[in-house]
Amino acid sequence: MKLINKSKIKDFVIKLPKYVRKFAFDVGYYGKAKSGKWIPNNFSIVDVDSGQYVRQIYLPSTSSEFDHHHESLSWMRVHQILSKILRNVVLIGFNADNDLDFFPMPLKYCLGVHDVQQRYYRKLGIPNPYFGDNNFGTLKAAIEEIGESEYLAKQNTPILDAQMTAALWRYCDMLDFEEDPKINYEILKKYMELDDRQSTIELDNTDKAHNNHLSNELSYRREQFKKCNIDYGNTDTDPITLEYGNKYDKDNNRVINTFGTPILEKIVFE
């Protein structure tokens, strides 16, 4: 178990410390099956701070409509690699919930997942007076806005999208844009539970054979951070109060506006 100085716990929730590694990712797809489900083809990862390539993992097709990629691995091998690479790592995605809907396996091994689309456009998106928040935009549009347009001259690939995601997160760090405290609080809990002596993760038979992980995040979507007011309090022990102007409609799998009826949540520090 990892120990954190009590005075630093709230700081961790406000902004992830530098000793927590961050990898940007993107999921590539074989295509959209007749069922309407997108079939993941690869999981591409780069280091956020350095922009350095980490790994591109080709996945077996989960649909008979698409042939396996010639470099695709077994699901057992994918589990093995992710369990080593993602340990003690926070993943950064762009429109991350969408990718995690179709490829949830990383949630099993990483500390948590942030969405830079929410972090960036929450501050710099075009205001939408009807919904009282800011509109989303694309990754390419954001990259052009932050002056990193050299990426746009390159052939688009999942690795390139991961590199652009990392660049956008670094830009948000430079401007000290808020991170989602609710996500960071869950990351903190997982981080403190890590045992450095653990070298293997036991997989059950379902895990060994499938792209499978049941998320415990079904009541919260990262898009909700788009319309969230944050009160950090005044001291190290004051709770963080989150005022959401939206909520997750689980039945329809979408975030809806509450139109003037905010939902309050508190993160309490004992």
The 3D shape can be described as globular
First-to-last CA distance: 19 Å
For CATH, the homologous superfamily is named as: Ribonuclease H-like superfamily/Ribonuclease H
Specify the CATH architecture: 2-Layer Sandwich
Number of domains: 1
CATH class: Alpha Beta
Strand order within the widest sheet?
3-2-1-4-5
Q: How can the largest sheet be summarized?
A: 5 strands, mixed
> What are the secondary-structure elements, in order, as H or E?
HEEEHEHHEHEEHHHHEEEEE
Look up the CATH topology.
Answer: Nucleotidyltransferase, domain 5
Mean pLDDT: 89
Give the helix/strand class: alpha+beta
Query: What is the strand tally?
Result: 12
Q: How much β-strand is present in the residues?
A: 15-25%
Structural features, described:
This protein is of the alpha+beta class and 270 residues long. The protein has a single domain, classed as 2-Layer Sandwich (Nucleotidyltransferase, domain 5). 29% of the residues lie in helices and 23% in strands. The protein is built from nine helices and twelve strands. The protein is globular.
Describe the structure in brief:
The chain is of the alpha+beta class.
List keywords for this structure.
270 residues; alpha+beta; Nucleotidyltransferase, domain 5; 5-stranded mixed β-sheet; 3-stranded antiparallel β-sheet; 9 helices; 23% strand
